[in-house]
Amino acid sequence: MRPSQCRLLTFVASLTALVVVPSVAAAYPRIVHPFAIEPGSFHITASSYQAGAHADLTTAFSFVYEVSEDEEAATFSDVKTTIVNLPPGFLGSATAVPTCTDAQLSQSKPGGGVFCPPESQVGTISFTLGEPGKVNVGFTGPVYNMQSNSGVAATLGFSVGGITQILPVSVRPGDTGLTVTSPSIENLGEPHDIVFTVWGVPASPVHTPDRGRIVAEETGHEPFIIREGGEEVHIPIKPFLTNPTACTGHGERATLSADSWEEVENWSEASVEIPPITGCNRSPFSPSFAAQLTTTSAESPTGLDATVTVLQTWEDPESISTSDLENSRVTLPEGMTLNPSAGAGLGSCTPQQYAKETAFSLPGEGCPPESKIGTVEIETPLISEKLEGAVYVATPYDNPFNTLLGVYVVARVRERGVVIKVAARVDPNPATGRLVTTFQETPQAPFSRFVLKFRPGATAPLVSPPSCGSYAALAELTPWSAPFEPRNAESPPFQITQGAGGGACPSGGGVGGIPFHPQTVAYPLHGNAGAFSPLYVRISRNDGEQEITGFSTILPPGLTGDLSGIPFCGKGEIAAARAQSGQQAAEHPACPAASEIGHTIAEAGVGTVLAQTPGRLYLAGPFEGAPFSVVSVTSAKVGPFDLGTVVVHLPLRVDPHTAAVSIPSGPTDQIPHIIKGVVIHLRTIRVYIDREHFMLNPTSCSPSSIETTVIGGGADPSNPAGYEPASVANPFQIANCSSLAFQPRFKVLTSGKTSKQGGATLDVKLSFPSAPQGSEANIRKVKVELPKQLPSRLTTLQQACLAKVFESNPASCPAASVVGYARAVTPVLPVPLIGPAYFVSHGGEAFPSLIIVLQGYGVTVELTGNTFISKAGVTSSTFATVPDVPVGSFELYLPQGKNSALAANTNLCKVKGGLHMPTEFVSQNNTLIHQSTPITVTGCPKAAKARKARKARRARKARKARRAAHAHTSGSAGR
After folding, report:
1. Average pLDDT for residues 189-198, to the nearest whole number?
2. Between these two residues, 670 and 160, which has the higher pLDDT value?
3. Cα three-residue angle 703-704-707, rounded to 5 degrees
4. 586: nearest Cα among 620, 613, 611, 604
5. Do the Cβ atoms of 478 and 326 come closer than 8 Å?
6. What is the pTM of this model?
7. How big, in percent rounded to 5, are the helix, strand and coil portions of the chain?
8. What's the angle, vertex CA 571, arms to CA 567 and CA 576, rounded to 5?
9. Smallest Cα–Cα separation from 188: which of 161, 220, 218, 148?
10. In degrees rounded to 5, what are phi and psi of residue 463?
């Protein structure tokens, strides 16, 4: 027998002994110690620590053995599972070499070895079988790149020393580091002193001597070659492994976990620090960037295709691998902003949902489908398949950056169990809305092409620039190899060639050439004269026009509100509303419900789908010099984005001559067009003043208009403060005025006690019957003619206040010009209006006007009566414009005194036929009443004597009745 045959027989006998060792050892009493990795045995070394080098990587470890009481049976624990976690950046390629099938690995060749193709070998494994003090045999053999089962990134395998093992290689979802697992190791011979080497470039000729080589070595004997190596391969020489491209200056830790068949799931842990990676300056990095919109129209909803391409040297075995991308910062062109329309129906992804995104999760198991706003594709030299996935909106302020805007990118190859997850923050410029997206610490994994596509369509998340022209996006791309040396890249320009909606490009006019043609609609929902009716107002603009930043409105005379019984939303409550979140404002309004007078709907966005945000309208007190104000509180919450509460506080002025209500022109930022960097793109404001029994229609059916001036601006990023007003008048006319009654009651009194020094008095009382609102017309004009016995007092007329003094401040007028006092009661105010009556001299008038200044509840109304004195000395006053406001009663008292308005040229008590005042009333519905109003003269002596006589007669009758009663009583008693 040849020596080699003898050695082979000896080896077989030794192997047989190893196989039966477990059963023999089981007969001995044992003290079971916890299974453990032998301290200091775990090492991971690389043949080179050059960044991006394709180095061989060797992993070594062993296990502590158990000893029985009599020390006759020492045995290693039977390892069941090992798990090795490599640091991020140590990566392998699934496309570098061919694969071996499970059938090829399990079928032995005559003379040793398996039928795996030599081209599929990627390394070697060495281990020892046996127990201390007994027969031990060490084996070294090939490790192959296996066909992967579904769900793993790659698979390694070997069949050496009677042990056949499959090792799945998975990619960790957090840092894309590799995890190599050896599950359910055969319970045979207690393997230890394990050394596992994976070649960086398997097809390299340097590995030819070890390719296919299988060696066995019994303790104390020379190695026995079971199968010679030297198998040549003829495949492209490609790298299989690469080192990280990040030079951190310190070593990275790898971990090993193992358990045993004796103590399943009782894990032993070990870790080791791999020496630092160096030479990052040699790792190339040549990225490029492209961005393209899905529209060529200005201010339109648009998707965005952004592509980062990195020229890879991964497949060149002679080159240092391209550095991985660490950070990227993409800045979109000025004028591109977020689209509020995207918020319609949009959801968001919470951190908990994001964590559930795995390589195998199905749609909806992690981030909800409604939070998806785009797709992603990643091409990598490591695998043949593309990673595909989605872009999700991160829940505002509940994301890794604690920001309003953020996205999650999730891409996977389910068949390989690979998932890439990365979060990005989106920071809009607070002044212009320009968007900057930042990915930080992207996982260390090479890619040749990264394509992110934001969805197009009506709810696209972006808005194209507002003007035609050429635009480009900017990218700042930072490699792991040089974290402080970003590379700047500008996308090829994309063109905006059409106006919004596909029309011609805007040119001329407006801010920065951007047009502004807002539309308004305003009308009462019920058109009957004098009736209560909600008021509807709509202000809108088209895409491609300036933003709406403010407005002013003048309502027609007579269109007013009934303020009785409505409390104000106070200053503190308005401040509280400003501090609320949009959700709080919607659920718990700060202003009291009793002050609510209506609601609003704001529509924001571009395109055909708009996001709607509801609001409430409240009545408030004095503001910016106006007696009243209205507070609009809108919940700026669209989809998952809560931008807080938008509070717009607008003064309500009341015209002193017509009582017409108006919202005066305010500051240019009356309505914010940008909040927290999000351009609102406000398209429509709908206002419903619909509190029951609040808004009153006029009682005049004369044609009028609701005049609105809308202020534009904010559309031009280079001139965000610019604005341009545009005025629109909406025709206004109500109906059924002729059905209104007009029944004024007029009473006039004067005192019969007159004097030359004190003059005469006049007390005028006007009242209307108490009738349901909407059944009576309001008064429009009054003309009265005083009898000639009550002439105007010329000396008082000469004391009239000059018009310029009166217009500046009536209180500055001389006391002599104040000739009377008035009081008016209206159901639309909770208090009466009272005030003085002045003679006011206007330069173009022959006689001073009588102007009554009524004030109350912050309202000032001036009633102007034009005075005319005929040659016969008859004075007439015409109040040609009386506000179209319901009046319950009105009284004007002109007293006697040194500066009385009237004199008496005769004894008023003795005027034959009495005094009469020709009177003309005209209602707002043009009903005309002519009458001669009698003037009651009070305090006349005749009247006093008559009253005295009547009193005496009543007294005499009373005495006579008492005497008669007494006589009757006495007669009865005598009988």
Report:
1. 92
2. 160
3. 155
4. 613
5. yes
6. 0.84
7. 15, 40, 45
8. 105
9. 161
10. -120, 135
